[in-house]
From TrEMBL:
GO-annotated biological processes: anaerobic cobalamin biosynthetic process; methylation
Protein name listed in UniProt: Cobalt-precorrin-5B C(1)-methyltransferase
Enzyme Commission number, as recorded: 2.1.1.195
Alphabetized UniProt keyword annotations: Cobalamin biosynthesis, Methyltransferase, S-adenosyl-L-methionine, Transferase
Single GO MF annotation: cobalt-precorrin-5B C1-methyltransferase activity
Annotated transmembrane regions: none
Organism: Acetobacterium woodii (strain ATCC 29683 / DSM 1030 / JCM 2381 / KCTC 1655 / WB1)
Origin superkingdom: Bacteria
SUPFAM superfamilies: CbiD-like
Family membership noted in the UniProt record: Belongs to the CbiD family.
Gene that this polypeptide is encoded by: cbiD
Amino acid sequence: MFNKTIEKNGKELRYGYTTGSCATAATKAALLMYLQQQRQDTVEIMTPKGWALDLVLHDQTFSEKSASCSVIKDSGDDPDVTNGIKIFAKISPAEKAGIEFVAGIGVGTVTSVGLSIPPGQPAINPTPREMITREIETIMADSQINQNNELPKGWQVELSIPQGIELAKRTFNPKLGIEGGLSIIGTSGIVEPMSEEALKASLKLELSVLNARGYKEIIFVPGNYGKNFSEELGLSEAVLVKTSNFIGFMLDEAERMNFEKILIIGHLGKMVKLAGGIFNTHSSVADGRMEILTAYAGLLGADQKTMAKIMASKTTDEATDIILAENLTGYFDYLAEVIRKKVMDRVYQNIDMEVVLFSKIHGFLGQSQAAEKMREQLCIH
């Protein structure tokens, strides 16, 4: 077991290692078994992060034609659908010089532009390809010195993940244009538990794919609630992007990629924070929901007693009950306009944006002035 840890929020969390590291270790071990014609039980690799991994091997087979084995993925304390699955590598000599990567069962194939690998290629990202290539070249350089026998000109590396086809349905891959399985990924070779940067990278990738496909008008939703409500409105899922809590980051990326229009649809509990200029909506970063709802109620004429009741609310749904009962006319449309101004200011007015607010209990609450028109443009046709 890989036992490096990091402390986050007072908890000791264990690092893991990527599918790319698993594929590299399995390939290195398979090549050694092929060249030496003997079993390997463990293998050591160096990750781009500079940490060595000594990994246990499984399913070892070798012959004069090929060799293969597997490594079990360990995601540490990071929630990951690939944790505990086997990554297989099979290596075979090839007549053509160089290294050919092949997608075996459960490893996807890239079918769309906008990713780091061109269409038609196995979904094996650049860093794992570099890691595998480096290990093969190092072993072959040693073999050239230590052996007089003629060695193959090149190698075919086939990577497989038997569970990959099913698990891929629980990832972004189908939406990103990766078909037939999972991707072999990882830039550092190491999985950092609860990594904010890793989540941002995956969210940014969705934007990159839509940009490469030529879309200029898209939908932002913070999470599944927004996604489900968008479906109820009949909006196109093809242009829908989840922002998670990183709405500010995603707005910055959208502006950098020159998107022209964004319809933001979100639950009041998240969206109200934007009205207060809070662009990372995670509760550990900032809250202020009741303060913001109360302030705008006051601006729209709520008396002190009503404001005190809103301020004392435990949830935004409870606060919504009070706002609706007090007949604060146009409150949620007004709030949507405030949010629209905040997000437009964030991108220096370079993207036209509209806002739709809802709650799980009350459904549709309000929207900015031109949101209806933008909704029509983004409906499924």
